[in-house]
Amino acid sequence: MKTMTLDPRARRSGRSPGWSHLLGAPSSSVTWRSYGYLWLMLLLGPFALAYVLVTVAVTAGAAVTVVGLFVAGGLVVGGRWWGAAYRSLAGHLLDTHVAAPVPRRARQGFWPRLGGALGDPVGWRALLFMLAALPVTLAGFIVSTACLVLGLGGVTYWSWFWSLPPELAMDSSWHNPAGLAVVALGGLVVLVLWPLAQSGLVALLKLLTRVLLGPTAASLRVAELERSRAGTVEAADARLRRIERDLHDGTQARLVAVGMQLGEAREQLASGGTDAVGELLEVAHASTKDALAELRELARGIHPPALDSGLAVALETLAARAPLPVTADIDPAVEAGGRLAPAIESIVYFSIAELVTNAAKHARASRVHVRVEVVADGGSGILHIQVRDDGGGGATVVAPDGSGLRSGLAGLAERVGSVDGTFDLSSPVGGPTVVTMTLSAVRAVAAGARRTGAGGRA
Asked: Are residues 265 and 369 both part of a single domain?
């Protein structure tokens, strides 16, 4: 394997690997693939320009019709195909791999479908690329071909100068060994500089490909938010199904047993027998208390009552009830400016609760440290949450398997992402495991009314 480190002999001799790279550039595959890319771009250029002009003309001419607008919309959407072809060309010849834009979303209804086709931003950006790339391609092809022809012509001039007509040949004073050597040297310099001149214009085409044919940051963010929100909805639906199952298999069955026991006690009283009534009532009473405890646990899983008093109190309560020692370090600034939005408080609470449970159940940790603080960020604040345990580490975020079920750390990441937050996991084998989450410190609407109480509590 070659390295870029100079050995002492090369350093003493003054040689540099940069010169060898420069001299070898004219024969490298990268240079010739770039030149082939310019050729193909030039061949596609006239067809692409014609497509752009036809699209603009049809769109302008069909503005007074309805059927014609569908043709224009189809041409705009067809720009996506051109964009895919140009991305493939850049990927195969320039090793510039650009991700495909976000796919079109199917729209229902006549006018939404028409508007979605005519206003397709990906199609219009592809048309703009086809228009902007043509002059750059022409300039790159002309400069590259001129340098290549002049360089090869100068290097080989000594072998063919005699075939030129007298009016085109150089002065005969050049046709000596010294003159031919100067011409060959000039041709060699042009040939060596040819890849540099070509790469500048090819780099501009690469930039246009990335900017106009790739996905925009906004579209990627929207797609990510839609995906995370879809995951959150599925997780909420799965949570509701779990609650329904717990009610059906646990509390409901227990209450049915209580009803049967009370019914049997009533029959005993009606028949005059009182021997087993006390025992039946005692069992029914115990079952009722168990059912109430289960209902409290279910209610706490839906919305912890401690959250009604604020995030700080809820986390302190969570730390006190945890199955292992938990140190909760809550920055007073978390609620000093008013209560956080309920959605933010709920996500923070349940995320920390699940991480504490994971530390106790899977990581075999002996302690957990929770740190929640607000970091100033311009005019707003960023909620910074860190959960650290001293367990065995090795935790990973497993992507969903396509079944629609999301659980564990992947579910936490999607839950945080649904409110435009970030989720970062560091869990080397042997520990420690550190989970860092950031969310926008969005305040509740009624924050001003609660500011004094929240600040005093924090």
From this structure: no
